[in-house]
């Protein structure tokens, strides 16, 4: 047994309180190297007199294999502690027949003497509920729908910007084009979204800005007049809430737009500007901007992605903090929004996000905070900053197998398991799982126009741990390449058509088994016949999804399936899906 591969980190994603009375532990081992694991555990103060010697009395529980990643097997179990304290030690048996104890101070030979060596036990000193990572339960049963407001629907032509183009879903938009989408358009189609099964609306930025995408904010406290006004937004939130829909707004606190009054003051007054410390400025004057990518020398100030129209905010500045926290709480207090999606969240300091979290949760305890981070995110997901992140690192593995074939099935499933094991269960359950967005090509385009391939990938995503998100137009079979082509005007002519109906069926499946799919355990494997199997378990209920990504039909026997695609006569065809419940 390769002892160097054994790994466990206390008070982390390897050892965490899941609810007030249950603690979950995980052990990492080299893939295929360990035959079984158990854990010795009890209150660290539980001793009894045995033959005149005070002896620590431990319980023993067997761990189950949670999954296999690229290089590791993951083992885990759930422990209880009536008196809210635990110490624990792993007993690991290798496939070579050897057994070792693995604890806080390393490996030991398995003997009763070493089992009584209490210094080698890992500890959860006390089940402090204030330290337990808590995530909003409602998110675990939400199907999100991402709206790019300028391209969703034009409900009020009176607020169309100059030069607004006719609504043509077949267009290939330019970066500066306007089509007149607005909040009234969303209001007009709330019933359509409700019929689709959507219960979470995720809006790209609505605040006053210079561009069609609105990620270059001018005023965080105003709705952009291209979209409407605050009264209309309040009506939209109220109507959404009446329909059981939550509302998530997108905010850019990493940078402001060039036309914001704070930055314009810096441009005009230079070092004398009272806002100069709101930004990361190294040299005056700040214009003309020097772009290092264009070999123009060192830039005078930090920006988003070397874009001189988006100067980076100094979120360590108390004035900036006060301003942004006022913004964050204003939209919760005044309009009762339910969530923030935070753009470029990884480039903002952790200290600010901790203050942001505290401010939002103080107003609304079950508020949802979602960060845009494209890479491993443990440092943001320990309970004091974000509840979840946009789960690109997870969903891109799905894309690379189901849509492009860049990865074989076994590699894709292993990478997905590795991603799940990065975080606590309650965190995985509120990650945002999307296959496309305003920042990526559309899934049908990635799938080469193959609708069955796109829907198979979507079905797989809907069976995963984490909240699924649909990008507007997926249900209409829309296509589009990278930005700006992925931001075409919505094709409302496809409302209710076969593609729409198939997406509606997937959403209905997610809602039908919302508790199971929201909080149940997840097992991913590739069977000997080549089918990918997803097994979700909660209590005595088990859901199994089978996916055929091979080139051949595979014989499958399923009684009364809950959802199918390319399945019949006892065979799951290529691009097929069958979901069953027992």
From TrEMBL:
GO molecular function, one term: hydrolase activity, acting on glycosyl bonds
Region (Disordered): 155-175
Enzyme class, UniProt record, top EC level: hydrolase
Keywords of the record: Glycosidase, Hydrolase
InterPro entries: GH (IPR017853), GH13_cat_dom (IPR006047), Glyco_hydro_13_lg-like_dom (IPR004185), Ig-like_fold (IPR013783), Ig_E-set (IPR014756), O16G_dom_2 (IPR045857)
Keyword Hydrolase: yes
EC number: 3.2.1.-
Annotated ranges, domain Glycosyl hydrolase family 13 catalytic: 146-510
Gene3D superfamilies xref list: Glycosidases (3.20.20.80), Immunoglobulins (2.60.40.10), Oligo-1,6-glucosidase, Domain 2 (3.90.400.10)
SMART domains reported for this sequence: Aamy (SM00642)
Cited PANTHER family: ALPHA-AMYLASE FAMILY MEMBER, MALTODEXTRIN GLUCOSIDASE
Protein name as catalogued: Glycoside hydrolase family 13 protein
Source species: Lacticaseibacillus mingshuiensis
